Amino acid sequence: MKGGIDLSEKITYSYYTGAQASQTAFYRLSRALYEKEYFKGLSNDAKTLYALMLDRMSLSLSNDWLDEEGRVYINYSLESIMESLGCGKTKAVALLKELDAETGIGLIEKKNMGIDRATVFYVK
Questions:
Q1: Which of 53, 62, 104, 113 is most exposed by smallest CB count within 10 Å?
Q2: What is the dihedral of CA 47, 56, 95, 36, to 10 degrees?
Q3: Cβ neighbours for 65, distance < 8 A, ≥ 6 positions apart
Q4: Nearest-angstrom CA–CA distance, 85 and 42
Q5: pLDDT, one tens digit for every residue, the chain (124 residues)
Q6: Residues 45-48: contacts with CB within 8 Å, 24+ apart?
Q7: Burial 83-102 (b: 16+ CB within 10 A, else e)
């Protein structure tokens, strides 16, 4: 078993053909996160979480999730982040802190919406 993957049941993947390559969904990730010196200290896991958060922006736009200033926000629970990344709570919280405006690099900003309401994130 390598990295939690059972290689005894290895899947054989097909090659992409022209049309398939453009029809497959991918997460977008800015080259700046790898090329700019400012982002060199950001972990790859935090960069992946940022890509997942950017992807959720399209759902937010389709649901018209805008604040009073017209800024798009996303809903992304800690449990969903943990599931998406296959990690525990401690790791998920640490990754959010890396990205956060107050405790990290400033790519996201969280806003508590009040008692019994979810925290939302603004993705920058």
A1: 62
A2: 30
A3: 72, 73, 74, 75, 120
A4: 16
A5: 455 666 677 888 888 777 776 677 788 889 999 999 999 999 999 999 999 999 999 999 999 999 999 999 999 999 999 999 999 999 999 999 999 999 999 999 998 876 666 789 999 9
A6: 45/85, 45/87, 45/91, 45/95, 46/95, 46/98, 46/99, 46/104, 48/85
A7: ebeebeeeebebbbebbbee
| Whole-angstrom distance, CA of residue 86 vs CA of residue 92 | 9
Which strands form 119-123's sheet, in the order they lie side by side?
Answer: 74-75, 119-123, 108-112
- What would the two tokens of residue 85 be? 């990344």
Question: Letter for the amino acid at 56?
Answer: R
Can you read off the two tokens belonging to residue 99?
């990205």
* Both tokens assigned to 24: 């497959």
